[in-house]
Amino acid sequence: MEPLSKSLQENLDWLTASFGNTADCYTKKIRIAGVECAVCLLDGLGNLEKTWEMLLKRIGIQPLLGMNGEKLLAYIMEKSDYPTEKTPIRDREDLIFRLTAGMTVILLEGCDKALALGTQVMPYRAIAAPSTEGNVRGSQEAFTELLRVNVSLIRRLIRTTDLCVEYAQLGQRSRTEYALCYNQKLVPKALLNQTRETLQKVRIPFLLDSAYLVPFLRKGPFHLFSGMGNTERPAVAAAKICEGKIVILVNGSPFALVLPTFFAEHFESLDDYSTTALFASVIRLVKYIAFFLAILLPAVYVMAVRFLPEALPYQLLTIIAKGEADTPFPITLEMLLVLVVLEIIREAGLRMPKQLGHSVTLVAAVIIGDTAVKAGIMSVPVITVAAIAAIAMYVIPSLYEQITLLRLGFVLLAGYLGVAGLAAGLFFLAVMICGDAQGYPYTFPIVPWNRSVVRDGVLRRSWRVLARNDYTLGDVEQEDTP
User: Fold this and answer.
1) Residue 464 falls within a domain, yes or no?
2) What stretches of 438-481 show up as alpha helix (H) in DSSP?
3) pTM of structure
4) Has residue 40 been placed in a domain?
5) What total of structural domains would you count in the chain?
6) Are residues 240 and 358 in the same domain?
7) Is 172 helix (H, G, I), strand (E, B) or coil?
8) What is the three-class DSSP state of 230?
9) Which of 11, 57, 309, 377 has CA 20 to 30 A from 422's CA?
10) Sorting pLDDT into bands at 50, 70 and 90, what band is 480?
11) pLDDT digits (tens, 9 = 90+) for 130-161
């Protein structure tokens, strides 16, 4: 770290050379109490009008006897009403950090330290309802892109001294700020230290989203289930922190990273805790059924038609045989074609402008499905099975990527290897699920078996029971890791 120079002009020359000819770097020389100073800020991040409103009160002060840069800095910090930061700027790296954070920096002649004033005026998207995590009851607030706003949303929900927030930067080219949020009394120290050490070793050119950190935090080069989740709800993030987990917020990203996240947590939602325990338990079971339908239904259909037609009811077999007799493709290729077309339609609806996306998706699905059947390219049973699997997939949106890859893999295995291929796929799925989540079993509380399965896992008990038996991450037995 290079320290600041006592020469005001030298500091200004370095600042100009660092930022080049950028138009938003504002610098202006002034005299305060007879000492030559310079005001520096990045226009749009710092409030220029507010800065000058404060400075004009001091510019006209008569020079104080014996005043120099060092004494003026101490006077402003200790005796003035300027909104200065607690510590002065001592090095060039800290100067850049304060400027890019929206602060106004005052450089002083004859002083190797600088003042930082809190004049941030960063524009940001207003807090709105979540777009990916729908719920009927509960909070309707979602994270926004500004890190400090997101931290304040969590702080407003957890009003205790146990909430701890650590700031750091990542990205050699972007120097993006991120925050580690955790409960200092509940978080396992080994998990916290491991996360800190891993993030300190990350080397990435720029950091624009919290998802960029997932490959660095998970173990192994390939693992379908990462053991980390994300949420755009401050209420969910606050709940996870109160369970002893770590939440990572990245400046510019409205999604918080939660670690560790267990497999069973993908089937939970905020609404589960606002409804009756019986209804929430039934809905969770329905989600598990939807998960396996989304993955296995197309593969089981293809396998049954190709290798086990005798296992199908006679009436159903007749309908399938009639539909397949009119189509030119083998059943496996036909199913893959339908699944790929559904993904193309979904992607088109997602990437197009919102005003057109829903209309295009609906029209494309109806027209393509209807014309493909009438033209004899695809059969009605195949389209029906693929549609059911696609709808079931959207019941668990947080596992969309995994379900899509697994579904295509299961269709290929079952279509060409039959029962053996399906069994191999199930074995692979079991291996992937029985993985590691930041040193904890990803399948908790199902494997190893824990009473939390029927307390707040696959099923949910009433709040009377949950309040009596509080759950934290410390209740989970950590795996032995090398």
Assistant:
1) no
2) 452-456, 463-468
3) 0.84
4) yes
5) 3
6) no
7) coil
8) strand
9) 377
10) very low
11) 877 878 777 888 999 889 889 999 999 999 99
